[in-house]
Design goal:
This is Serine/threonine protein kinase. GO terms for molecular function: protein serine/threonine kinase activity. It comes from Blattamonas nauphoetae. InterPro entries: Kinase-like_dom_sf, Prot_kinase_dom, Protein_kinase_ATP_BS, Ser/Thr_kinase_AS, Ser_Thr_dual-spec_kinase. Helix 5 runs antiparallel to helix 7. The two termini are about 25 Å apart. It is globular, with a radius of gyration of 24 Å. It is built from 20 helices and twelve strands. The C terminus is likely disordered. By secondary structure, the chain is α+β, with helices and mostly antiparallel strands. The longest helix is centred in the last third of the chain and has 24 residues. The structure holds adenosine-5'-triphosphate. The site of adenosine-5'-triphosphate (ATP) has 25 residues, from strand 2, strand 3, strand 4, strand 6 and helix 19. The site of adenosine-5'-triphosphate has 25 residues, from strand 2, strand 3, strand 4, strand 6 and helix 19.
Length: about 550
Amino acid sequence: MPNKDSPLFKLTLDLTNLYRSCDQEYPFTPINPNLGKILTKLSTGVSNNGRDNENGDFIFRVGDIIAATDSMGNLRGRKYEVETLLGAGSFGQVLRCVQRDTYQVFAVKVIKNLPAYTKQAAVENRVLSDLLVADPNDESHMLRLIEQFTFHNHFCFVNELLGLDLYAVLKQHKFKGFSLSLISKIVKQILRALCVCKDIGLIHSDLKPENILLDHCLPHIKVIDFGSAAYEGHTVFTYVQSRYYRSPEVLLQIPYNSCIDMWSVGCITAELFIGHPLFPGCTEHDQIDRITSMLGALPHEMIKIGKKSTRFYVNDSTKPHGYRLSTTEEYQARTQDKRQPRKYGYIQPTLEQTIEAHQIKHSRDGTSLLDRPEFQIFLHFIKSCLQPFPDKRLVPHQALLHPFITGGKDMKELKEWKPPLYVPHPPYTPHPNGRQRDPNLSSMHSSTLTQTFQGSERRGLFAGALAQTQQSHSELPPLSLQPPTGFSSVSKRPQTHQATEREEKKRNDERREEEQKVEEEPTGKRRSSFKDFFRRKN
Ligand SMILES: Nc1ncnc2c1ncn2[C@@H]1O[C@H](COP(=O)(O)OP(=O)(O)OP(=O)(O)O)[C@@H](O)[C@H]1O
């Protein structure tokens, strides 16, 4: 975050306020040549008195005013003038708006006017409000909520305005990836955000480069999009996380906790170096295939209790546990999912080789530096996050003390490093009306912000989660890898909110995959991403 008192900040980002502090009457109202231009993709009004399109999105034009509306539709409270569209996601639209009185700019997220989305927005609201309490001084690199209200039946969040997402930044760098020191700084901030989440028992559930936005400039970042977030023990959806960043327990459908976010951190850390996703699976089967090819088979205990294991594994008496991962052909025959996995040149059989190949490609003299301590520390960090068994993954508080994050430089330090004992906080119970919090929470939080680590041994971690797993083990029927009857492909599932979300995530994944394809084709013309399409247009 740049110094807000510096001349650079005052004369650039804060110029409007500077002028106004010199002259209160200064009429700083730049003429917008796009005034009246439609920003929403489908612009035919079909509901909500012609205000909403068929997707339930409000049809916005440049210059529209967003504000709280009363039952008569009159505007109340602070008014936000629409400047441009920043992004359109599965839950609605995000608009860059200028506040009429102060001329400050904000990102206003306007949720679709559909019951399921409004319900999920209430969860997002609770999460963002909880985060404000948990992090009153804005130290945890998480998006700040300014206010929320309802505008013509659309739930709106006024958030601080951030910059490009990390995927867009990687793209600007031609997918060459970042240096280890820059990655360390970025990941440290993500971990700080996850520490606060962990302290209040929150699972982000959709960590990916697109949901990490620049806070003015690199390396400053903030984590956004709590639209899929849930509290531990209160998880509603079994289908969470974008596929490339999806953890084994979610893939297999095992009860999950905040450890799923650390899996995503491992994937993101590797991606920031190699410039491309580490596990770019085109289907969930392909995703598991890629994970197991690189990291080894998933633990038998997990496969045994996974509700979806029978989709991906088939009986095979020649194997130690009597089953194996099905081949692509077997999976396709069972699911009618004909998407064909692709080979990506940048991915090598092992994590070490993938990192090494990228490092050699971008070195001046083509020598491998993999033996260097900094690379060994980097690899160790990624592997500590990409532990298939959730309980073995680092928790964010431990990860913050890993030599990769603390700037360790020698092998001795790495060899001697053990994750410090993490003492979990009592489980957080979300308040039924969603506005108040556990009165003990602030003290719990402040104790963790000072990082209360005791001893150096790692014992008793997630005793609760483990007990849950062990209990599920004992209740388990013997493993039967027969495909369940009536097994249906994704497209046949009912169109619930979850299904819509799933479709959207699928579309996002496919969009990235398409781009990946273009990036890999030397002569191919680059296709724009969905988000870029809107950015360019506006
Ligand atoms: N505070 C912000 N500042 C700047 N841009 C933002 C901000 N919040 C969101 N955006 C932009 O809007 C896009 C969509 O926002 P967000 O991820 O919160 O919505 P979503 O509907 O949950 O999206 P998705 O379906 O991709 O998960 C982001 O990818 C980002 O480009």
